[in-house]
Amino acid sequence: MTRTTIDYGIDLGTTNSSIAVLNGVDVEVIKNNDDQSESTPSAVWIDRRDRLYVGDRAKKKNEIDPANTCIEFKGKMGMTDQLKVFANGNRSMTPEQLSAEVLKSLKGDVAQRYGEDLRAAVITVPAAFELSACEATGQAARLAGLAHAPLLQEPTAAALAYGFQSTADNAFWLVYDLGGGTFDAAVVNIRDGEFTVVNHRGDNTLGGKLIDWKIVEDLLVPALARQHRFADLRRGNPQSLAVIAQLKQAAEQAKIRLSRAEFADITIELKDDRGELVEFEYDLRRADVERLTEPFIVRSVNLCRKALEERGLGAAGIEKVLLVGGPTLSPYLRERLADPGDGLGIPLDHSRDPITAVATGAAVFAGTQRLDSMEPLPVPAVGEYAVDLAYEPMGPESEPLIGGRVSGADTEGFAIQLVNLGAQPPWSSGKIVLDSDGTFTTTLWAERGRANTFHIELTDAAGTRRKVTPDRLTYRVGTVDSQPLLTNSIGVGLENNEFSELVKRGTPLPARRSHRLWTTVTLSRSENQGFIRIPILEGEHPRADRNRRIGRLEIDPGQVTRDVPAGSEVEFSVVIDQSRLVVARAYIPLLDEEFEHVANLRTETAPAHDELVGRIRAEKHRLSEARTQAADLGDARAQALLATIDAEATVADVEALADAARADPDAAAACGKRLRDLQAAIDGVEEVMAWPKKVAEAKEVMTAVREIVQARGDSNDERTLSSLESATREAITAHDTDLLSRRMRDLWELAGDVLDRTNELPVIRFDHLRSLQPEMRDRDEAAQLIATGGKAVEQGDFRTVREVNRQLERMLPEPPPLDLSSTVVNGS
C-alpha cells in the first residue's frame, strides 16, 4: 500500500520493545517472528559462532551465559561510552548499537508481516530522558537504517493511545507510566480536539526492574545462602554475576505471575561455590513483594502529586489516571493508586493494554507525520508536475484547510481537484483554478472513524488530466498533540557552582536560547594551552552540581585562529527541536567565528565505588545533622520532608546501589543519580529550616546585645537598642531574610560600639588576630607583634593594642572578618 504518513510507532523499552502500525484509525501491534508475541525482550546474545540474536532467546540466555548477553541497555544510552564486551567473537558494542539491533529486529517483523522495508518510524522516549539519551536514541535509529525517526515522549504516546478517538473536552488526565526502568507522570489537558502535556515529573531510575532487584537482594539471596554453600553471594561480587543473573530472571518471571496469584514458586538450578549444581526452591509471596514495592510506589505517588500541585490541581480536577507499563498490572499497585489517603484517589483507566499502549500511541502520532515533508520536493520531469502541499494529516476538524503550490511547466489555466472516493456518497472539492503562481487553497470534508484518502487530480486549460506527484493525501479526524513541551530546564554551570538557566521547563518546542558568558582562562593557539569548557546541565536546582550534566561544549586551541584571552565574551546558544534533540553553538565575537557540533552530549562517567562511598558518608552526616536541627527547632515542614526521605528509602537505595557498583557499572550510574536525589532532598530540608534557624539566631543576638548594653551602655544605647529590637521583630514578621540579616548586623555594630568605648573590643580583635598567625605573610614578625600586644593587654595599654591590631591585619591576605557573635554569645 502507498503511505503518505509514517504510520509506524516503536516503543523502545528497557525490558521489552514493541512496534505498531496505524491502518485507517485502527492500530495493530505487530507480533514478532520469534514467538508471535506483541512485545520483544530488549536483549542481545552472541553465540559461539559470533551470530547475534535479539529477543526472548537472548533474554533466556542471560541466565546461563551473562558474559555473552546484554539486557536493560536503554538506560545507558547517552550516559557513557561504556561498551558491552561479549566473550564470544571478541565483539564489543555500545548501548546505541545494542538498541539498533532491537530496532532491526522490529523492522524484520514488519518486513515479514507487510513486506515493507521500513525506513521511517516514530520512536518513543521517557519524558524524563536526558537530552543526551534522546540524541543517542536518534543515533540508534540511524544505525538501524531508519532515515527518519521523530522522537515522541512516552506519556504523550500513552495519552494518544487512550484518547485518539475520544470525544472528551476540557478534561485533565494523569498519565501514570511505570516502565521497566523509568517512570513518568504527566498531566494532560484535552480541549477542542487537541491535548497538551501541561506538566511532567519523572525519574529515570525508577522502574519495574528495581522491584526485581529488591526481590533478589532481600528475599532470594538470603534464602539461597541459607540453603546452600554461597560464602559471598551478592550483586557487588564479580564472582556471583552468573548466579545473580539467574535469580534476577527468576524474580522477574515470578513477579509477573503474582499479578494473578497469591504466590509463585521458583525452582532453578545453580552452581554453588564448589561448582556443583544445586536446586533452589522458593515460594515468592505477593505480600512480601508488596512490602518491597512500597517505597517505589511512594516515590511515584509523590512525583504525581508534585506534578499536580505545580499546576494547581487536586484529585477532584483529574478525570482519570491512564495506566501504562507492565508493572501497573499489579493489583496492589492499582489498589494503592486508587486509595484517596496514601495514593491518588483518582479513578483508574486500564482499558488499554498497558504493555503495548505506548507503541499504540506512537503509531497514532506517526499518522500525523507526513512522509513527503521529510524529503525535498522532487523536480518534475518534462510534461509532469509536482505539488507542494501544506496541511496537517490529522486533526480535530472534519473540514480541514489545505493549501499548496503546483510546480512544473506553465500552469496558466490549470485547475486542481481533490476527491474522496471512500466517502458515502463520494465527495469532491470541485475544480479549483490555480493562481498565477500555481498556488491554491481549499477546505476538505472528512469523516471521523476512518482514514480519508483524497486523490489529487490536475487538469490543464483544455481539461486534460496531467500527471502530478504526489497524487493523493490522507487525513484522519482525531485528537492530536498540540505542541510538545520541554520537560526539564536546560542551562549551563558557572564557575561559582551556580546554574544559569537558558530554557525553562515547560517551554514549547522547538526552542532557541542564547546566553553571554566570559572565559576564565586564556586559550593560547601558539602554546597549545587552555580549553573553553561549558558544562551543559539539565535540572531545576540553583546549585549546578545538583543537576544532571548532559554534556559540555568544548573548544580547544587547535580550533581557534588566534589566542583568546581570559575574560573574552562567548555567546552560547542551544537549539532544541520537537524531538528534544539539541544543537549547541558558541560564537566568539573577538574571532568573529561560530563553533558548531562541539557539544559532547554525554553525561559524566559513572563514579567509582570508593567515591560513591565517600559521598554517601558525607550525605548521611548531613542528614543526621538535619534531623537533629529539625527536632531542636520543632519544624513540622522539615520533619515532613525527612519522613519522605525515609518513606522512599532513599538512603537504603544509594547504599545498596553503591555495593552493587563494585561489579556493576550500571548500578554505579544509577547510584550517582539517586545520590543527587538524596542531596537535593537534604537541601530541601535545610532550606525550609533556614528561616527558623535565622529567627532563632536573631533572638539570640537580641539577648546577647541587650546583656552588653545593660552591663556597659548608657541611656542613648538603651534607646538605640529598643529601636533596633523593634526593627528586628518587624523583619521577622515580614519573613524577609535579607532585611533580618541587616538588622542583626546593626545590633552587632551597636554592641561593638559599646565594647569599643570600654576598650574590650580591641582586646577581642587582638585575640582573634592572634589565632590567625599561621595565615600571616611573615610569621616571625607576627610573633613579635603578638608578644607586644599581649604585654599591652596585661598593662591596659589599649592604644598599643589597637596599633598592633592594625599591623597584624596588614599581614593577612584579606582583612579578617571578626565574628563578634561567637565571642559574646559564649560569654568571653
UniProtKB/TrEMBL annotation:
<dbReference type="InterPro" id="IPR029047">
    <property type="entry name" value="HSP70_peptide-bd_sf"/>
</dbReference>
<keyword id="KW-0547">Nucleotide-binding</keyword>
<keyword id="KW-0597">Phosphoprotein</keyword>
<protein>
    <submittedName>
        <fullName>Hsp70 family protein</fullName>
    </submittedName>
</protein>
<keyword id="KW-0346">Stress response</keyword>
<dbReference type="InterPro" id="IPR043129">
    <property type="entry name" value="ATPase_NBD"/>
</dbReference>
<keyword id="KW-0143">Chaperone</keyword>
<dbReference type="Pfam" id="PF00012">
    <property type="entry name" value="HSP70"/>
</dbReference>
<dbReference type="InterPro" id="IPR018181">
    <property type="entry name" value="Heat_shock_70_CS"/>
</dbReference>
<comment type="similarity">
    <text>Belongs to the heat shock protein 70 family.</text>
</comment>
<dbReference type="GO" id="GO:0140662">
    <property type="term" value="F:ATP-dependent protein folding chaperone"/>
</dbReference>
<dbReference type="InterPro" id="IPR013126">
    <property type="entry name" value="Hsp_70_fam"/>
</dbReference>
<dbReference type="GO" id="GO:0005524">
    <property type="term" value="F:ATP binding"/>
</dbReference>
<keyword id="KW-0067">ATP-binding</keyword>
